[in-house]
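Contributing new records

If you add data, match the layout below exactly. Sequence lines come first and carry their own label; structure lines follow with theirs. Keep one chain per record. Anything else will be rejected by the validation script.
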Amino acid sequence: MTSRLLHRLLLKEDPATYQLKDGSLSPTLTTLDLIGLGTGMVVGTAIFTLPGIVAAEHTGPAVPLAFIVAAIGAGLSALAYAETSSVLPFAGSAFSWMNVLFGEFFGWIAGWALLAEYFISVAFVASGWSAYMQGFLGALGIDLPKALTGGFDPAQGSYVDLLAALAILVVGWLLSHGVHQVSRIENTIVAIKLLVIILFIAVGATAIHPANYHPFIPAHRAGTSFGGWAGIMAGASQIFIAYVGFDAIAANTAETKNPQKTMPRGLIGTLVLGTGFFIAVSLVLVGMFKYSRYANNAEPAAWALRHAGHPFVANLLSVVALIGIFSALIAILLASSRLIYAFGRDGLLPKTLGHVDDRRVPNRALWTITVLAMILGSVFPFTFLATLVSAGTLVAFIFVSLGIYALRKREGVDLPEAAFKMPGYPVLPAISAIFSAAIFWNLNADAKLLMVGWFVIGLLVYFGYGIRHSALISRQKGK
């Protein structure tokens, strides 16, 4: 009995099966589209919201160092993603890849971690958009009822974030009309957003006070996650939410033209562009005001400009942030719907979720994640979501980094040769996995505990439903 169960858990999917099933999706995305999607997510909510919060809670003025540490970890993982996606161009990213490389059970664990990442990311991004919209409306003298302005927190008088729910609904409707049309909107939004970020850097630089940089790395406060290198690592762990854009790109591999070349370019291009903007924005932000003034502020960039005497640029930034954060919401909701589609495609969740409509869009998966994310994003507070989302990202990065070892053995045997290979093999994949594990360890206790709870739920779903409805296991039984 035990050996039969183990055999089922380790059954590997045939890549030809995924190729056939994903053939109903339309491959229309180019390198520019991928960089637009990735940059829309990476240079999205995080760049407008996280630098101030992380500076106040963990790093002080050293927040750029936290972004660099996170970028190194994400960069190593991006190299692993680039190689794997060029060999296995399927929807569902790490979920599908681990099914092929290690077996269905490991694929489910990786996919379940991704679902936490995506699910919470959608809610986090929408919550950030709501914060900016409220700040913008407040500047115009328009205030929403307190009960409708945030997640469920009776002590603060808030019960539901109405604007977050509306943002998710609008993006779900847009995506239901097809990827190609949405990618055009995404690219335009990203271009405008980057121009305004450059404007923020230029204007904000005129209001920098060098004294705000001293001490650049504050002393560590015993018993807390603030200051010193401990604070930088804690900040890097929280900042990792910014880099979920890598997996958001990879989730769309099946809808990409020439993914063997396009995927590596899109992944690495996103990393370089995103990290450069993060460092520049965070340096300007902590130079404008003392880092402690950004505590619990979900719109620090616009706030800093207003208080530095630049209300026009602040309002312009808020408007573009409102539009720009939508681009992040488009990218992550698109990726999450493809993951849900992949679960349904493989029978691990109801097969109806794997349905693709006449527009070549998995709309049942899309609307399922849209409705669930609306509930999550409107109920849970912004800072709570920011803490949790990095955990799923890091677990996925560890899986993909270790997956390189199984991939290399099969390249040129039963899998195609990679168009891009992760350098430094066999050392760099291990360093990448260790780096992500170290950042995971520096997450706060709540994030780690809730991730354990999430995996327990995932195991119950798999053994209660997935293993009994798995398309792979059903095919094996029929042989």
